[in-house]
Amino acid sequence: MPGPDRTVRTTPTRKRDPLKNNPPRPPNAWILFRSDEFKKILEEMKRDPTQKRMPQADISKLIAARWKTISDDERQEYEKLSERKKVEHMELYPGYRFQP
């Protein structure tokens, strides 16, 4: 005698439409700082070929530690830059609204 029919119901997952060209979000102060620091770290690694390449997770931890120790003035510069980027973004993409 056959057993009961079993069906597994799954909730549909939303897939991003690869053809939909959503504009990127404007970078915040942390993202701008991380980008600058990441470039510096890559340059340091290129200058010293004997230095072993760091995993991305370790680089992120190093940059996060640096972010916590920067001065208020330096942090304020990144905040100002972030605001400028936000204004540029609003000019490029009027009516933009982040939709995850």
Automatic annotation (TrEMBL):
Keywords: DNA-binding, Nucleus, Transcription. The keyword Nucleus applies. GO terms for cellular component: nucleus. Residues 23-97 form the HMG box domain. One of its GO terms (biological process) is cell differentiation. CDD domains: HMG-box_ROX1-like. Residues 23-97 bind DNA. Residues 1-30 are annotated as: Disordered. InterPro entries: HMG_box_dom, HMG_box_dom_sf, SRY-related_HMG-box_TF-like. PROSITE patterns: HMG_BOX_2 (PS50118). GO terms for molecular function: DNA-binding transcription activator activity, RNA polymerase II-specific; RNA polymerase II cis-regulatory region sequence-specific DNA binding. PANTHER family: SEX-DETERMINING REGION Y PROTEIN, SOX TRANSCRIPTION FACTOR. This is Unplaced genomic scaffold SPHSTscaffold_591, whole genome shotgun sequence. The lineage of its organism: Eukaryota, Fungi, Dikarya, Basidiomycota, Agaricomycotina.
